[in-house]
Amino acid sequence: MSKASSRSFIPLEFELLSTERQLSRAQEFELGMGTRRTVRQFSSRQVPRQLIESALRVASRAPSGANQQPWRFVVVLDPEKKRQIRVAAEAEERDNYERRFPQEWLDALETLGTDWHKEFLEIAPCLIVVFRVDYGIDDEDKAKQRKIKHYYVQESVGIACGFLIAALHWMGLATLTHTPSPMGFLSQVLDRPPNEKPYLLIPVGFPANDAKVPNIAKKSLNEIAVFVE
Questions:
Q1: Residue 8 within a domain
Q2: Could you tell me the CATH number of the domain that includes residue 159?
């Protein structure tokens, strides 16, 4: 049997919408996503687990190189694990702000009002730690385990994170994209295998009643897009 004939295909499920319906949905989504902001002040109010599971299912629908789906989402709800993550993250971040970051980077961060304190890592009821899976492991034969190369890992995981953040916002939850550097401590705290590398840490929850965000704006469409006609 040829390689082509061994492939399995199924009919595409696709709803052909009227232009009016397309525009209506586009406007609704654009307006909703237009209110998305990065939040650093969280309430301790608990998030229904069903919401997190739904958002992760949305993220799992992201496209990936060769459909290898090279991601792992570790949901941290345990207060002690969150405390350990905060302690380790603040140690790295304090070193960053006081020694590692160049002045140019510190100047860029000035408008956001950030520093090495990361109390949101304990206050937010849920932390989603995204790991990229650099290679798979064929463990059918324990005596002959072999690595399975993954392709376009960085790109695939980045797209999945976009799906995840959009889903969480659309269901009415606040998020923060946190990238403490270096992030190796996350592998240790969460006891992840060597083929998984930390990619992104996302606190998830409801904003505090007195939450504030920087007075910043996004670039206009003309600044970010070019139409070649």
A1: no
A2: 3.40.109.10
**Which residues, 6+ apart, have CB-to-CB distance to 189 below 8 Å?**
81, 84, 85, 88
Give the pLDDT confidence score for residue 105 in this predicted structure: 87
Kindly state whether residue 25 falls inside one of the protein's structural domains: no
Going from the C-alpha of 44 to that of each of 36, 39, 113, 122, 178, the distances in angstroms are: 20, 13, 22, 9, 18
Could you tell me whether strands 126-133 and 135-138 are parallel, antiparallel, or unpaired per DSSP bridges?
unpaired
Instruction: For helices 153-170 and 19-33, give the axis angle rounded to 10 degrees.
Output: 90
- Using left for φ > 0, alpha for ψ between -120 and 50, and beta otherwise, residue 187 falls in alpha
Domain span at residue 114? Answer: 36-208
Residues 6+ apart with CB under 8 A from 136: 68, 70, 147, 148, 150, 195
Residue 225 to residue 193: CA distance in whole angstroms: 40
Residue 9 lies in a domain: no
Q: What is the pLDDT of residue 142?
A: 61
Run means of pLDDT, 10 residues per run, the chain, 229 residues: 69 97 98 97 98 98 97 98 97 92 90 92 98 88 79 98 98 96 96 97 98 95 97
Helical pair 49-59 and 153-170, crossing angle rounded to 10 deg = 140
The whole model's pTM is what? 0.93
Query: How many domains are there within the chain?
Result: 1
Q: Is residue 3 part of a domain?
A: no
Structure tokens at 75: 């949901």
